[in-house]
Amino acid sequence: MAAAERHTFNVWRHLLSPNCEYQVAAASAKDYLSGSEELSFDDLRERVWDMCRGVLLGWRRAEDRYPKLNPKDKTEQHCWSDARGDELIMLRSPPPIRASSEDGGEYESAAPEGELGERPGSAKRPGFCNLN
What we know:
Elements: H1 6-16, E1 23-28, E2 36-39, H2 41-52, E3 55-60, E4 68-69, E5 78-81, E6 87-92, E7 97-100, E8 106-109
Antiparallel strand pairs: 1-6, 2-5, 3-4, 3-6, 7-8
């Protein structure tokens, strides 16, 4: 597929380059949930994108040892709760870097923008995607 489509090839080349600032990460699912909800992969994919411009790859349920990546049925509803220890696996840009200012206060400095997408100005929920 990558060889047949130039855009796909360029994306993969960028992702696999040593200078790529994007990374595969596991984030707490509770940062993307409001209480208990029934959500599909597609629902979660949209939330991850809206909140931090990440690309959802799958999840790891608290009781499972291994993650489920690229589920076959993207519309199947699953029960989610912010009280569980589930994780969402995603491709995302790095979290903000904590630094200290000269007056002793802390501030966050976001990593530079990448070629794959525009970083949001702020996230709607707490978690590593919060840029403010």
